[in-house]
Each structure stands twice: as C-alpha cells, then as structure tokens.
Amino acid sequence: MAEVTIYTKAYCPYCVRAIMLLREKKVAYQEVRIDVETERRAEMIERAGGRSTVPQIFIANQHIGGCDDMFALESAGKLDSLLQA
C-alpha cells in the first residue's frame, strides 16, 4: 500500500470527509495537523505547489490535491490503483 500523507487542521469538514474515505478504505495515513505543528504549514504549501487550503493529500509522494480531488479520483475509479502503487 502506498504511503499517504494528509495535511489538516481542526474544524475542517473537508479534512473529516477525506479522512473518513481513507478509513473506509482501511488505508493507513499520516496526518499532519498544521494548526498544531504550525511550522509544517510552509512545508505543505511548498509540496502542494502553492496551495494553502486544507486538506492537501499526497499518495506515494504525489500531490493529488484536496478532498474534492480525492473524491473525483474515487468516482473515476482511479483512487484504488494509486493507493495500491
């Protein structure tokens, strides 16, 4: 299974939805709370090509975008293959 990193912060409904999908798929992930580890916000923005909203999701070090992007991959039947890489 591919390594998954998701940058989040508290009280973010999109973060909750993205994490729920990962849990439904029984995917292990590393959550980075940028409201707790504030110094990691700059890291997220750099890795995400300037995007500063949360969540920002990476699968196997590939930036896939945010929650809507991940659900679009799921709807297109492409998410599982990324997670298996």
Structural class: alpha+beta
Tell me about the largest β-sheet: 4 strands, mixed
- Going across the biggest sheet, name each strand in turn: 2-1-3-4
What's the average pLDDT?
97
Number of helices: 4
Strand content: 15-25%
Fraction of residues in H or I helices: 40-55%
Terminal Cα span: 6 Å
Radius of gyration: 12 Å
Order of helices and strands: EHEHEEHH
Number of distinct beta strands: 4
- Low-pLDDT stretches are none
Q: What coarse outline follows from CA principal-axis ratios?
A: globular
Function: Has a glutathione-disulfide oxidoreductase activity in the presence of NADPH and glutathione reductase. Reduces low molecular weight disulfides and proteins.
Protein name: Glutaredoxin
Domain Glutaredoxin: 4-64
Organism: Alishewanella maricola
Q: Can you describe what's shown?
A:
It holds the Pfam family Glutaredoxin. This is Glutaredoxin. Keywords: Cytoplasm, Disulfide bond, Electron transport, Redox-active center, Transport. The termini are close together. The longest helix has 12 residues, at 13-24. The protein has a four-stranded mixed sheet, with helices on both faces. By secondary structure, it is of the alpha+beta class. Helix 1 (13-24) runs parallel beside helix 3. 40% of the residues lie in helices and 20% in strands. The mean pLDDT is 97. The chain contains four helices and four strands; from the N terminus they run βαβαββαα. 24% of the residues are buried.
Please give a handful of descriptors for the protein shown.
alpha+beta; single chain; cytoplasm; Glutaredoxin; 85 residues; four-stranded mixed sheet; Glutaredoxin_subgr; redox-active center; globular
